[in-house]
Specification:
The complex is a heterodimer of chains A (425) and B (448). With 425 residues, chain A is α+β, with helices and mostly antiparallel strands. Helices cover 20% and strands 43% of the residues of chain A. Classes of the chains: A alpha+beta (425), B alpha+beta (448).
Amino acid sequence: MIIAKNLNGNVDAEYYKENSITTVLTLTFDNIINIEQRSIFGHAYRIVKNHKMGFSSGSIDKNKNEIYKNAYKLAENGIPINVHFPENKKNVKQNVVDNKIKELTIDKLFILAHQILNNIVECKNTQITLEKKMIKKIIKNSNGINCEKNKQIVNVKFLSRIESNNETFTIFNSKRVNDLKDIKNIAYNYKCIYDHCRYKETLNHFCNKAIFSPEALAPLVYLVVQSLNGKRIMMGNSMFNKKIGRKTFSNLLTLYDNPNIGESMPADNVDDEGVCTKTKPLIYKGKIVNYYSDLITAAKFKLGVSSGNGFRRNGYTSMPTPNVIGIKMNSGSLEKKCLIESIKSGIYIDRIAVMGNMCTNKGVANVNIIRAYYIENGNIKGLVRNSVIRLDLFKFFNEFVNSKDCEVINGSMKLPYLMKDNIYI
Amino acid sequence: MIENLVELTNNMDVDYGEIRIQINNMEGCSFRNRTLENLTTGYELGGIVRIFNNGNWAHVSFNSLKEIKNAIGIAKKFTSFYKKNNNKRFLPVCNVYFEKKPFANEISINEKKNLLSNYYKYIIKHEYIEKCNLIYIKNRSEKILVTTDKTNIYMKNEEDVINIQLSKDSTKNSTSKIIKSCNGFANLPDIGNAIDNTIDELNENIVQDEFVKGRYPVLLDGNIAGVFFHEAIGHLFEADNIINNEFLKNRIYNGKKIADSSLTIVDNPSIIGHSGSYLYDDEGIKSNQTCIIKKGIVKQNLHSRETAILMDEKTTGNARAASFYDLPLVRMSNFCVSNGERKVKELINDIQLGVYACGSEIGKTKLDEFMLIPKKCYLIKNGKIKYRIPNKCFAGNTFRAINDMELSKEVIWNDSGYCKKSNQKSLPIAICSPTVKLNNIIIKGDVT
């Protein structure tokens, strides 16, 4: 093995290899829009020599030795860092592969897409995209780490054009699935969204009670979690600067970094640096109790050991950075249905997009409501679109009611429904 | 390699087929948090096979030259698996070009690091600067396109970019500057000078001023005016945005008067030496000047080969793919807005109370609505620039704005821009624009 061959006493080496194949099929009831297969196959070395690091990467055609040599050369005058790659003599092999997903060839994807479309025949002008992704990662280092991770996931995306009241607009939804039997529910949910969107409502009041669906809540929770990135905290670039250990939110808010959410497809036993991942609370009963790090952040800011959150978001061409792959928020005691029924006049927000960058230190974000429904006397009515709200996340998570029911969003976040008073639109 | 690709396309036995390969050699060096944070090299080879057969399109990408044959096989299988569709194939195009100009001779990444390290030391000597990032990225790319129409193209492209980001007073006051070269590291604009200008900008006094809120005239300098025209107008002319969009179809068609008669806009990737320049697009169409608006009247949309055939218009050479595995989309390149007749000074003199906005931070649009955040704002009072005020957000209706505006005589080129579309990565673009005075624009509160 190349690592052993090139090793000498002063050198720590890490080899990373990634192969992903994505098959994409997009079709409507009567036409094929796109058939595509995308491959990304490459590898990279990180070398630490005399407390200096070099990094080099290449697509699979590039010789492994050459990449090693480039990284070695860069390490001679490289990034000053006293980092040691983790030690483990045990091989870690992880397979997150559902057999039914594994068997999905292009012809079976085609049949599956038609089955789903047949379940939503009422949704005219709907386009479905099925995306099957196979990812294989190998992490080895000179201290004995030898990990292999295999995953296969399917993304289902819907896009419809609705014509109503002389107006044409598009609705969109996407879900990641790890079990094909979930697809029936996904189709049913989309049908509900489509039905609600056919009726347009206007809001009478600027101040409303609002329910955020798990899907709408996800980007807001993610903003909070992003601010618990150890690197950002250490650099003073987080809304939680000087707030570690302090109670900041409502008692009802508990957030876990959970890399192994039961239904999570990105579930990982080890991160992309070979460090074991673990479930840990980030916010416990409103108190900021933890932040997450990778090897470099832990070494640079003298945080002790990495928390097992070193992941390569941009694939083999980039070094790992602190990232969270699974988030779980605690649930409440009331059912979603009760929350909706308790509202006389308000909105049910189903999908949002955060606009631009959050104002870092203040925790204020501008949010575009992509899809929301008017609630009248406890019943969900027609669509409310294109509204903008400005949210102070400290206030947002300081007072709320969360539901008993939770949903897994994109296979990586398990969140409840959340009810808020006084949302100004 | 090209001979092998020609042989592979000759043996494809399909209605239309193409192989596009991209080879990138990258270098990166960044200083953050008062230390060297990143020193990397990277190599990427990848390509995509695109086939039209049996009335169907299929696309298969690969990461290794050994995989091309396999990719062709999969793509052919994809197209033949389904019933015959009535999709149209591209109109045939045959272009041949082989670029011989070598890449610039350069110093090593380690030498560049040492040089940049000296500049970084100079920045951190200014102790009041809290955040100081100096980021260098280089990419040398080679593109090969071979098609069954006998198009055979080999092109090179080189880009060196330095991004200087500074902030002080707990990031309340921050600024950034991008400098770029298309001819190698040695031809980058003076780095020391760029750093000094950025530090000066950071030290500018900002007077808190709350009364400029509401509807006022706004003077956009060439940089933010360029972003306004690119975002609010340019994207409306990309044919893939128009197809299936009734709103745009009713507004953007040949002969429709949409703007003040002073407005003429062209997109021209064939101008040499700018960020959006190229000789052939990613579908092998020779780059050309496309006039989209002439004297306020719609002339032409921007097209790829696919959209041209769908809308029964001529191709314009605007198909660009961000990565080797992406399909080419209709994208702008060097976007040029023609100048007006009056000097910037005269435009300022006309304003009793308004804002002079410089540089661009964010530009967003939704059909005919736009929102702009500049890098910095100055108060204009009684025809004079008074002082710098906190940054503002501007919003308005695009069509109303371009029917009530004035353009300056002076134009500036901005080569530091990037444009993102759909799920693809950003592509470099250039914008040439005069300063523009927009009347009756909504000025929102301070942006911090």
